[in-house]
Design goal:
- With 357 residues, the chain is an alpha/beta fold.
- The protein has a domain of 153 residues: NAD(P)-binding Rossmann-like Domain (Rossmann fold).
- The protein is 46% helix and 13% strand.
- The chain is built from twelve helices and eleven strands.
- It has a seven-stranded mixed β-sheet, with helices on both faces. Strands 1, 2, 3 and 4 form a four-stranded parallel β-sheet that branches.
- α4 crosses α5 and α11 crosses α12.
- The longest helix has 26 residues.
- 49% of the residues are buried.
- The mean pLDDT is 95.
Length: 357
């Protein structure tokens, strides 16, 4: 589903999940338009999805599914048209299959057709950690405004897949105390802090955070209610609702997942004076480094990870400050301010380009 190409080629993830719907994909495509505009990269929004349970498919089945899907949409994607990326239950291997299949249809290697690829196929240094790292840069700025000492803050993370696990690792390295996490099977809590490197090894070995030694089991829903300074929803959409928003005790919510908070819950969080860093801001690091990867592929000139991270920090801090200035100007929420900045950029581009024919 392509939402907008007024500012450049469409950009967005491809997700594999049993609950994927047309409406969900359409909504995610729109979110990608605003996310790209907010961090000011020259892309529009798109998203794709396949209704399946990848956990029940073999590697061979996943490859055949991916290649057939790519062949069907080959006329709609391309480096100057629509550039897919990983999303829920897809990864660098998925992107490699898409790149290879598309390249076979064009007759030559086309690495810029996707981002989030393995580095030896034209991927960018720092891409895997980019979404979480971008959120970390935003959190640093947010904590300054809140008067919160980031290094001594406590964190709860809902979702321990690609985004959530990397977020946990980066925050742990920063010195934060990660006290609760959950994945699709279970949740765990330890108010003294979880050993994240050990948990990552444990999940690799067992497939879940369930029964990790030294922690108390809780439900994924209860992770959201954990008393902490920072809450990071990094799972699926619509997790923070009117039913549980009143129980949230965090000072800051950083939305790494796409649309994890319902509009009704948003209103309650405003009344509770919780700082909500919206998804189009907090998770903007992924598409920013996707843009860097695309640029590097087109130039065939690649940057060191330090350079990628330096550029990413500049983009994310700039976006956060623009949101703060807009919030102050219009006396609105961070979410509203983020959308004001993003929609204004798309609207101005549309007006300047005009309509033709």
């Amino acid at each position: 589903m392509q939402h907008s190409n007024v500012r450049g080629p469409c950009k967005g993830g491809i997700r594999y999940h049993p609950s994927v719907t047309f409406d969900e994909v359409a909504a995610m495509a729109a979110v990608m338009t605003w996310k790209c505009a907010l961090v000011d990269v020259p892309f529009g929004g798109a998203t794709g999805g396949i209704v399946c349970d990848p956990k029940k498919l073999s590697r061979g089945e996943l490859e055949r599914l991916t290649r057939r899907y790519t062949y069907e949409i080959a006329a709609l994607i391309g480096p100057d048209q629509d550039i897919p990326a990983p999303d829920v239950n897809t990864d660098a291997q998925t992107m490699a299959w898409i790149m290879d299949t598309y390249s076979m249809t064009t007759g030559h290697a086309t690495p810029a057709v996707v981002t989030g690829k393995p580095m030896y196929l034209g991927g960018s240094a720092g891409r895997y950690e980019a979404g979480a790292r971008g959120c970390l840069f935003v959190l640093r700025e947010a904590c300054k405004l809140k008067g919160l000492d980031l290094a001594n803050a406590t964190v709860a993370i809902q979702g321990f897949g690609n985004s959530g696990s990397v977020m946990a690792k980066l925050l742990w390295k920063e010195g934060l105390k990660v006290i609760a996490v959950s994945d699709s099977k279970a949740g765990i809590v330890n108010k003294d802090g979880i050993d994240i490197p050990a948990l990552l090894r444990f999940k690799t070995e067992t497939g879940s955070v369930e029964a990790f030694p030294g922690c108390t089991p809780i439900s994924s829903a209860d992770v959201l209610k954990t008393a902490c300074d920072i809450l990071v929803p990094a799972a699926m959409e619509n997790q923070i609702t009117i039913e549980n928003a009143g129980y949230i005790k965090a000072q800051i919510i950083a939305e790494v997942a796409t649309s994890p908070t319902t509009p009704e819950a948003d209103l309650m969080l405003i009344r509770k004076e919780v700082m909500v860093l919206p998804d189009i801001l907090a998770s903007g690091g992924g598409v920013t480094v996707s843009y860097f990867e695309w640029v590097q592929d087109l130039q065939q000139l690649f940057w060191e990870e330090e350079e990628v991270n330096r550029r990413l920090e500049h983009v994310m801090v700039k976006a956060f400050r623009e949101v703060c200035e807009t919030r102050k100007k219009y006396d609105c929420t961070y979410r509203a301010a983020a959308y004001i900045v993003a929609i204004d950029r798309v609207a101005k581009a549309t007006i300047e380009r005009g309509l033709w024919p």
